[in-house]
């Protein structure tokens, strides 16, 4: 059903790759997110929680460098362990603390010299506006649904993104005590689609306005920021999060037979559904920021 639509969406949907390092280690944790371009001028949309990683990346590293600079003063001090513990507490350094976060925009534009990020004040939405670039590596752009009356319960829609980070073009530089991107190794990860039907529309209890679209299947980690579209490739929204709905079919300390042996198990089932930013929210924000975009209606008679 979505073969042609995916072929339309792939050229303007792009991954954002991340590599992360945590305090006290040299291991690198790869991750990914998604964005999609809305015009030919280098403007894309993604989730605000993804954009915040881009915004905060340098601040995180600057904080770590300050910590290292202060610690260096006590390298030859006999009470070095005490100073280390004091500074770790002061700067909040634990094994779970991110000290380096590096993004990479793959196959998007050439020579991204400057980038403006505009987060939405309330919704999980942000605009990324690339500037001073030589050329674009993405093709085409999103075409948004013109009339949101077409967002109906039971309609089949598809999401596209990059949930599985299979790239390995990075390394830990021991001499610099830092992580970095390299020109060697695998740079790309394949896109991954997942379909579902519209189950409900999500309203804001304060404004009483529809802000989101719920899908019967979960969005996958890394698909955040990817387009939600119909079989014609028209964009209805953007994948944002996964909601976990408690089903109430709990089994507590129930005796079952496993491999011929009686065992007691407990199970608390949840239904995982996708949550997407509504097309109207995206278009309104693009209008507010003066970003050019395109609209279309589904073909006549399309279900």
Q: In terms of structural class, how would the helical and strand content be classed?
A: alpha+beta
Q: Estimate the mean pLDDT confidence.
A: 92
Order of helices and strands: HEEEHHEEEEEEEEEEEEEEEEHE
Main sheet record: 6 strands, antiparallel
Which architecture per CATH? Answer: Beta Barrel
CATH top level label: Mainly Beta
Strand order of the largest sheet: 4-1-2-3-7-6
Give the end-to-end Cα distance, rounded to a whole number of Å: 12 Å
Proportion in helices:
10-25%
Radius of gyration: 23 Å
The tally of structural domains comes to 1
Percentage of residues in strands: 35-45%
Number of helices: 4
Q: Tally of extended strands?
A: 20
CATH topology: Thrombin, subunit H
Shape category: globular
Low-confidence stretches: none
Structure description:
The chain has 4 helices and 20 strands. It has 303 residues and is α+β, with helices and mostly antiparallel strands. The protein has a single domain (3-296), classed as Thrombin, subunit H, CATH 2.40.10.120. The strands form 6 sheets. Strands 4-1-2-3-7-6 form a 6-stranded antiparallel beta sheet, with helices on one face. The protein is globular, with a radius of gyration of 23 Å. The protein starts with a helix and ends in a 7-residue tail after the last strand.
């Amino acid at each position: 059903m979505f073969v042609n639509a995916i072929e339309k969406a792939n050229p303007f949907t792009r991954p954002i790759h991340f590599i992360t390092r945590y305090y006290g280690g040299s291991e690198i944790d790869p991750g990914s997110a998604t964005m999609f371009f809305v015009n030919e001028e280098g403007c894309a949309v993604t989730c605000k929680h993804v954009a915040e990683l881009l915004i905060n990346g340098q601040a995180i590293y600057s904080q770590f460098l300050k910590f290292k600079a202060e610690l260096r003063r006590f390298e030859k001090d006999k009470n070095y362990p005490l100073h280390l513990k004091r500074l770790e507490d002061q700067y909040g350094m634990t094994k779970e603390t991110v000290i380096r976060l590096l993004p990479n925009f793959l196959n998007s534009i050439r020579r991204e010299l400057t980038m403006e990020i505009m987060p939405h004040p309330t919704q999980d939405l942000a605009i990324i506006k690339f500037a001073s670039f030589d050329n674009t590596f993405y093709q085409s752009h999103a075409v948004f649904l013109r009339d949101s009356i077409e967002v109906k319960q039971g309609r089949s829609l598809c999401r596209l993104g990059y949930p599985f980070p299979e790239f390995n073009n990075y390394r830990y530089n021991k001499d610099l005590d830092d992580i970095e991107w390299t020109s060697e190794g695998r740079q790309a990860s394949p896109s991954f689609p997942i379909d579902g039907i519209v189950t409900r529309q999500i309203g804001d209890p304060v404004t009483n306005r529809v802000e989101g679209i719920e899908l019967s299947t979960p969005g996958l980690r890394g698909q955040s920021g990817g387009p939600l579209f119909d079989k014609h490739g028209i964009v209805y929204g953007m994948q944002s999060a996964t909601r976990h709905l408690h089903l109430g079919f709990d089994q507590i300390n129930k005796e079952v037979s496993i491999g011929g042996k009686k065992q007691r198990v407990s199970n608390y089932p949840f239904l995982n559904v996708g949550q997407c930013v509504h097309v109207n929210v995206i278009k309104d924000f693009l209008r507010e920021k003066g970003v050019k975009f395109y609209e279309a209606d589904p073909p006549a008679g399309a279900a």
